[in-house]
Structure prediction request, 577 residues.
Amino acid sequence: MNRTAAWLAVHALEKLGVRFTFGIPGVHNTELYDELNNSEQITPILVTHEGCAAYMADAVSRVSDMVGTLAIVPAAGATHAASGIGEAFLAGIPMLVLAGGIRTDVPFQYQLHQIDQHAFLKPLTKATFLIRDHKEVVPVLYEAHRIATSGEPGPVFIELPVNLQLFPGEAGDLPEPPARAPVQAPAADLLQRAAELLSAARRPGLFLGWGARDAVPEAIAIAEHLQAPACTTLQGLSVFPAKHVLHTGFGFGPSAVPAARNAFGGCDALLAVGTRFSEIATGSFGVTVPANLVHVDINPKVFGANYPAAVAIEGDAAIVLRALLEHLGRKGAARPNDESLQARIRADKRRYREEWYAHAAAGRVNPARFFDALRGRLPDDAIVSVDDGNHTYLTAELFPVHQPKTLIVPTDFNSMGYAVPAAIGAKLARPEREVAAIVGDGAFLMTGMEIVTAVLHRLGIVFCVFHDGELSQISQAQAITYQRAPCTTLGALDLEGAAAATGAAYVRMADDAAIDEALDRAFAAARAGQPVVLDVNIDYSKRTAFTQGAVKTNFRRFPLAQKLRMALRVLKRKVTG
Ligand SMILES: Cc1ncc(C[n+]2csc(CCOP(=O)(O)OP(=O)(O)O)c2C)c(N)n1
Ligand SMILES: [Mg+2]
Prediction:
């Protein structure tokens, strides 16, 4: 079959179930865009910046069964997209990054956009491919998709030289996408040992990451069987329903919310699923992990990386947990309802909220009241994207999440600018769902103009901008450590102007009294297909449990001489200003 590589690539993407690509055309991929434009299945979405394209693609993968796909120009497109590719890489999110490539059929150097894209993207991707021949296009895209979606998922980069896109060539017979390889069953002896450890424990607990997102019923069944409290990582906030009596919240060490801190106090066996015990998940490695750690993950490299596991089980979370539940059942009946544990969790949660309500700052929006009202307006299956900053931890601690994959958040790569484009990607992938973004004003300045894309496609999303005038997550830590906060005060941001500039509606929420009416107006507009900038005059004067815990944990780990030096600096500055 004689075809251009542009045609072949679109054919393969269609076969792989892709419905959207994200990016910006340029001379190295206009041929590809012409074929995308011909496709009945795929809509190419034009973005304002390729970083946003990557965040959108990431969100598509996180909230649906599709694999988020980029169609970008080489070099400048790839470097712009790199933040979103890196986010997906460290978060285990599948992505296809399809970039044009310089001509391979001419002898010239210093071509436009000529860099070694593979060297650049190697540390941010699971694999990179340079297509050399028309025959390779379809099989390479299938292989890229297989790699992106198998094991711990991640981004895969494919460079499609422009000459192959422009000129037809012999492609041979086109294959169908290969069937997925069957997932290995976990070893029975490991399951047996894990079941022994967990059922013998006095106070077992569950720690769940994003890797457990497709194993929620199994995780619930195990928590109930053992009457074990269940906490989550930040990325995994949605993998255990906050409504459940055994749900304790984000984290379990000194940086965790009180319900989790107390419930995991004497934890003597931990079942950790789909988490790598990375820095944020562990509150800067401040957690105390019991020797009896049962660690389940699809990526064996994570075992023992930070905390030794008594039993490490490699495999798909749902399959392993299903089998583990069976082994637990053989060890004995489910434990009776632990009323006192459940009552303590309930009381701790209530007290923590009351602490937040009590911290009232006149003329500002109380974060707990804001999240109460937001949760009250959103159905459980609504999707919320979050950015990176103080608002992230407020969301983690105060916004209950009830269904898997309904809260998406940048975590280990920790890229500001995620929430606005991610909400757009999520709404495109799941138009039937309500979608909101929680974004700091600093992060909004990075990618907020992408709202023009939401307006263009009539995507009714409420972008809740926590407008405090600062890069608060950093300025709070600076205030503690340095008694001053250089370079974290933002210039004045006119959000009404930003809304007008992008074509979004604008709603201001000045204080607690305005919460209900502002949310009603914002969601009414969004339900009619109108993107909305919700300007939240948020009160940031109370610190989250996470920020307090993480600052303390890091400080404690400094060498004594450095602790003294820093403490003296703080004292001196307190006196001299
Ligand atoms: C791309 C990038 N640059 C810098 C940082 C460091 N950083 C982490 S949180 C934060 C503050 C974010 O400010 P804002 O968006 O206003 O959110 P707030 O903390 O005020 O809620 C910064 C600067 C980062 N994570 N990512
Ligand atoms: Mg801010």
Notes: Residues 107 and 393 are 53 Å apart (CA to CA).
